[in-house]
């Protein structure tokens, strides 16, 4: 049994970053880019722009379309911008943590934003505070700014590269000075970051759907360990680390990214569909219809239906006006939340043997509620099929997959879990199946197998990893 004393995870963020260089109305275009990545974070958003003379910023808590309007966008002058959407899942909500941060310094101001999580942030913060740093926020992003300014290097690019060497964990950073945009990825490439072109300018984005949104053309992904510098001379690429590897977060494909985005050359919808196909091969079952949990599991459900030959049906609909349910503070609220969000279609499921496809099980709240609702609506059998392996360990790299004792698969075997959610059968996609579905790309799958690609630094996290608690 897991000990709850190990639940005090640090701040975890699931965010999206967007940057633009040398394109008129950079703030307005950033608005559209960020809006298309709203699913990556709804807690807060901001944009910092530059007109080559000054930096301008606006940020607030809330969604992109409520935070920005014509009046405040028109004050964000210039042809260069960085922007951020933020999803704080623990601790550090509030305006002080909304990004981009805009740092004022005698050697030059800069804006900074980040997607990911720095796992050695407490150690670095302690070190920097002992050297005199005073932090304005509880976000680990600010640590990077202090490292840059406290380092020995006088050249800004060298200072960035030196500072990045101190950071362990997952990051996609965008940094804007008055004349240069920098974009960088951690040496394991855990979080996505792509470059595109628009007219004579450049666009950088967590997801390619934002490039499509503003009519930019995808050029390439930024590589693990790469620092891209964009200025008047064009694009300059260099690496801050030599020991790089490709460990893209598997959850980006499974749940997090938009189906119309491509990650390392693989379309997310196609990847999910392929997961559904593999699942049908690994766990066939006799049934009348295949139903996907909207929206993130629809692609996998199509794949399962195609592979099995069992018809896909719209047996469940999503209330488009409901908010999120995953991170509600209490279990009772989460359960109500599922009902507000998802409803079975009685005339479709009644009298049918249903294969219900979901992309993942975290706490088990969604599955248990959906199985119960389907049965209330007259489904004869409900066979749950999950298009990813069981989540048995937390993520320390910026995706909220919950804590050890909340993760139902960390605490329960398959049969017990099947009984708990009330399904007639339950099966998860195997790790090998997931690898194959994602074209054997270099992946992080640590929440499925505890094979974390970095040190975790915190004693609590290490203890969790080794299952000592
Ligand atoms: P649960 O009800 O706790 O088992 O959560 C499972 C549901 O949450 C699934 O339907 C997933 O689509 C969704 N989900 C999985 N991972 C996340 C995440 N990191 N943030 C929000 N929702 C998630
Ligand atoms: Fe993604 Fe899981 Fe790795 Fe976190 S632990 S980066 S959620 S695959």
Helix content: 25-40%
CATH architecture annotation name of the largest domain: 4-Layer Sandwich
Distance, first to last CA: 7 Å
Given as residue ranges, the uncertain stretches (5+ residues, pLDDT < 50) are 1-12
Tally the helices: 18
Shape: elongated
Looking at the structure, the CATH topology of the largest domain is: Glutamine Phosphoribosylpyrophosphate, subunit 1, domain 1
- Please give the order of strands in the largest beta sheet: 3-2-4-1-10-9-11
CATH class of the largest domain: Alpha Beta
CATH superfamily label of the largest domain: Aminohydrolase, N-terminal nucleophile (Ntn) domain
Catalytic activity: 5-phospho-beta-D-ribosylamine + L-glutamate + diphosphate = 5-phospho-alpha-D-ribose 1-diphosphate + L-glutamine + H2O
Pathway: Purine metabolism; IMP biosynthesis via de novo pathway; N(1)-(5-phospho-D-ribosyl)glycinamide from 5-phospho-alpha-D-ribose 1-diphosphate: step 1/2
GO molecular function, one term: amidophosphoribosyltransferase activity
Enzyme class: transferase
């Amino acid at each position: 049994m897991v000990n709850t004393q190990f639940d005090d995870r640090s701040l975890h963020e699931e965010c999206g970053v967007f940057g633009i260089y040398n394109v008129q109305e950079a703030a307005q275009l950033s608005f559209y880019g960020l809006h298309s990545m709203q699913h990556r974070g709804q807690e807060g958003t901001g944009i910092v722009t530059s007109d080559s003379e000054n930096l301008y910023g606006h940020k607030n808590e809330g969604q992109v379309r409520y935070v920005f309007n014509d009046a405040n966008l028109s004050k964000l002058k210039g042809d260069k911008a960085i922007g951020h959407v933020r999803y704080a899942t623990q601790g550090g909500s509030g305006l002080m943590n909304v990004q981009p941060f805009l740092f004022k310094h005698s050697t030059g101001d800069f804006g900074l934003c980040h997607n990911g999580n720095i796992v050695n942030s407490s150690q670095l913060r302690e070190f920097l505070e002992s050297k005199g740093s005073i932090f304005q926020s509880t976000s680990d992003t600010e640590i990077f700014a202090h490292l840059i300014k406290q380092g020995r290097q006088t050249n800004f690019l060298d200072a960035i590269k030196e500072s990045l060497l101190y950071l362990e964990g997952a990051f996609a950073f965008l940094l804007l000075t008055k004349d240069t945009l920098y974009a960088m990825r951690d040496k394991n490439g855990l979080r996505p970051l792509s470059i595109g072109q628009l007219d004579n300018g450049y666009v950088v984005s967590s997801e390619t759907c934002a490039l499509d949104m503003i009519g930019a053309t995808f050029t390439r992904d930024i590589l693990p360990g790469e620092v891209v510098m964009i200025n008047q001379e064009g694009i300059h690429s260099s690496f801050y680390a030599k020991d790089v590897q490709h460990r893209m977060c598997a959850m980006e494909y499974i749940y997090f990214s938009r189906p119309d985005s491509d990650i390392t050359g693989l379309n997310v919808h196609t990847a999910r569909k392929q997961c559904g196909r593999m699942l049908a091969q690994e766990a066939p079952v006799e049934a009348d219809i295949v139903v996907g949990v909207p929206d993130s599991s629809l692609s996998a459900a199509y794949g399962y239906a195609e592979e099995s030959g069992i018809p896909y049906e719209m047996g469940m609909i999503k209330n488009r006006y409901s908010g999120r349910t995953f991170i509600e503070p209490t279990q009772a609220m989460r359960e109500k939340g599922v009902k507000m969000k998802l409803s079975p279609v009685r005339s479709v499921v009644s009298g049918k043997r249903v294969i219900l496809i979901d992309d993942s099980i975290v706490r088990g709240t969604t599955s248990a509620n959906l199985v119960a609702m389907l049965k209330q609506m007259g489904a004869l059998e409900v066979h749950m099929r999950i298009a990813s392996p069981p989540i048995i360990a937390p993520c320390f790299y910026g995706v909220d997959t919950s804590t050890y004792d909340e993760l139902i698969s960390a605490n329960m075997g398959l049969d017990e879990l099947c009984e708990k959610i009330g399904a007639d059968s339950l099966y998860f996609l195997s790790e090998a199946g997931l690898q194959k579905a994602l074209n054997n790309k270099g992946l992080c799958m640590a929440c499925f197998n505890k094979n974390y690609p970095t040190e975790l630094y915190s004693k609590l996290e290490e203890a969790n990893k080794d299952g000592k608690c």
